[in-house]
Fold:
Amino acid sequence: MGGQHVLALADLEEHLRRQVAYLRRSAAAYDEGATDEAFRLATTVRVLCHQTANSRSLLHQLGLLPQRLRFVNTALQLPDLPPGSFAINPGLCTVRVNFDAGTATPTPVLDDLGPDRTNPLQAFDEWWVTRFLTNESPLRVGRRAFTYSRRNVVLQMANKDGGAHVDPQMSDHYQALVDHDGVVGLVVNGQQASIPRRAFVTAWMRQIAHEVQRTLERDFRTRAILEGGPSGLPPGARG
Structure:
């Protein structure tokens, strides 16, 4: 077996430019109506962010994770609630309701952020694994509750649901996402609103990709790489 070639910093920077180009193209296609591009977005975000014992993410290889980057966080802030109460929360999206058609469409908020979505920047580990939605409520007594994080969404879409691989089995919590079981239920004009399957998960994935794109565009090191200039990463910065 031959030896292994170690990529230079310039090679990794070129990979970053390529992955962000993928991110931007898929995001633009999603916004034009091709919502299934969310699965390609999940695969790209996995390449950029997901670190395992056997596989290192691109941003880790560049030495930017887990400490250097601070991530844009557009999750909805929920008010403090008294014991036994709960709030309906669509997570990383909003829901547009068409009363004439009786439909509800989960829609990423992108940069349309109110005060309840304007949050401090987060360290990667917090941004990646902190739950942004839970379906725990007193109305679901006796039913299993699930919580959802960005990591959950990205890895299930990329590893299981067709982004990079199709798995014959889905975890219960992701299937609940697909079927929006217990995520939110809407009644329009006396009828249960029609919400397409996977509509929540694809809208959330589009918003996650938007957060990643804004994070990389605002950081001076990654912005310099994307513009084709020197990254400013110090020698030995690679993880």
